[in-house]
Amino acid sequence: MANIPDAALGFILQNLKESVQYNTELIGGVKDNVKELCEDLETLRAFIREYTDKYSDNEILEKLASEIRGVVYRAEDAIETYISCASVQKLRRAISKATHFVDYISDLRAVGKEIEKVSKDVQEIYQNRAALGFAAMQIEEISNRRQKKKKTPVVEEDNVVGFDDAAKEVIELLTGESDDQSDQLEVISIIGMLGLGKTTLAKKVLNDPKIEYEFYTRAFVNVSQEYERKEMFLKILGQFTQITDQMNKMSDEQLCKELHDQLKTRKYLIVMDDVWTNEAWDQLKGAFPNNNKRSRVLITSRHKPVAVHANQSIDPYFLRFLYPEESRELLRRKVFGNNCCPSELEAYELRILQKCDGLPLAIVVVAGILVNHRDRTDWWKKVAEDVNDYVARKQEQSYDVIKLSYNHMPYYLKPCFLYLGVFREDFEIPVWKLVRLWIAEGFIPRDGCMSLEDIAEDYLEELVDRNLVMVGHRRLTGQIKTCRIHDTLRDFCKKEATKENLFQEIKRKLTRLTLLNTLLDWKHMSTLGKLEKLEVLKLKDNAFQGELWRTEGGGFRNLKVLHIGSTNLVMWKALASHFPILRSLFLRHCTKLEAVPSGLGDIATLQEIDLYCTNSMVAKSARNIQVLKLKVQANDKNKRGAAFKLSVYPPDQ
Ligand SMILES: Nc1ncnc2c1ncn2[C@@H]1O[C@H](COP(=O)(O)OP(=O)(O)OP(=O)(O)O)[C@@H](O)[C@H]1O
Ligand SMILES: [Mg+2]
């Protein structure tokens, strides 16, 4: 239990509370217990929230947090067992309750008592918190979130600080005519450690008027570790020509030739950002013709050998660290939106900057920690103490600064941030997709009358404010359209999520899930299929939309109950192997659906199909399944399977 992550715990508590609230009508007999239990859970949740926000090393808190973890899990088991038992009872309309059901009630009560006890401990600690020495920081309440966000200055990556000299030198390397080979294609490289600003500099150079004038054909492509050749070529082509259907169908070899041919007559500059290996360069270089037009390829890389391999005759450009005054300007711009800082904070500012040691990535991440409490001296003092010395120049220690930012992150942002680890490196993430995935994972709790999408977008803005996510493009309305995550941050997310076991934890525990108005695409059902323990899945009003659902992959191995309500689904394609132990299928207001997949008739465990306001074609397909089921039952001499039941409302015969 001790390793249960706080982020996952907060999430489980939230889910549990919602599940209790959602099912109050089922809980009837034990309503009072459950109400109290809910209040107690809320106290525990507030505690976890504060605990994860401050990440205190306090021993008493540590011990209490581990007790809470234990109790939350027992509560979760008891409540879920109770609710699923109660719902089965209700469905079967049983009049008398079976004895084992009564046992579940007593389990629930026992857990209630335990929760009550831990909750008292928590309250005591709260009351004495000043004496225990951890009252300094206030919790960041959700209700303050929107207000705070407005105060945060918007500073995005096009606000480059310094680098004028660096840009000038690189431009000189790209356009200079000093050596006699300059008519030839040349490869120029910018080298530097992670987060030093290579990508930022390369973009600044690419947008420089002199470069725009010299090179009519320009393209920027991020290579990274997990590139695909075909995608790289298409991305480059797409920046100066129209991508045709024919191009989309080409193999990577054909595309390499196509790009080569298109570039042959042009004076071009292509930026290949973040090339990791010699092999990567070797695989891509064939697309760049040497056309005696002084074309250039600009590579950025963390590794000098890559630069030497690509061009032995020109030394790579080694990017420098920021000068102290540039570091200060960058921090101030990110925190205050201008180059000013209140004089009482200057001493802390200096200490922080010394520790960041001129590394832009460290500076922007620390700025993200400061920005939310930028006027509080005690906050600056704490951050100054917490940033490790010489964080910057040792690669492995740059993790420390990200960890620090993560530790200071409010509980609700943590799972959302860690989730970004699932995207490919430097992938331009469409926000609509991210938002829906967050919602599907259950990371976005309800908050008053705001829609889940709006809350999710607010979360994203917060991550941007903290410099943990970079904005790709914004819409005209100012909303973020696409975003990216720096690959060091992404590595952190992946490692931390594995360490915290976040996704496994959620997967392991979630047995019931209800989605409502999430408007997800049926494609994303495969994400839900990954919830290994999922037994009951209710897709209520417009949880999913789209005309075709082709159930894919491993399907839903443990799903017993599937409820699909109000959707525009027309065609559902699935096999028995996708739902090997399904017992009950409920379809409500699926008016456009054409049929229940006939394959479902082969599910040995299927006992019931319940149709409510579906069309006659669906009823017909369900009757075919019923006939099949009855045949199988008639042939089964041992009469092992339970009788199959089909109900259709309104009756159509
Ligand atoms: N001169 C600068 N002015 C403002 N922000 C900067 C500057 N240099 C870097 N940054 C910011 O620092 C972060 C890291 O920069 P960048 O991504 O350019 O580093 P990098 O050297 O390309 O890192 P990697 O090796 O991981 O690709 C980004 O958030 C970027 O916006
Ligand atoms: Mg980069």
UniProtKB/TrEMBL annotation:
One of its GO terms (biological process) is defense response to other organism. Residues 181-339 form the NB-ARC domain. The keyword Lipoprotein does not apply. Pfam families: NB-ARC, Rx_N, WHD_DRP. Residues 8-90 form the Disease resistance N-terminal domain. One of its GO terms (molecular function) is ADP binding. Belongs to the disease resistance NB-LRR family. This is Disease resistance RPP13-like protein 3 isoform X2. It comes from Coffea arabica. The lineage of its organism: Eukaryota, Viridiplantae, Streptophyta, Embryophyta, Tracheophyta. The gene is LOC113727367.
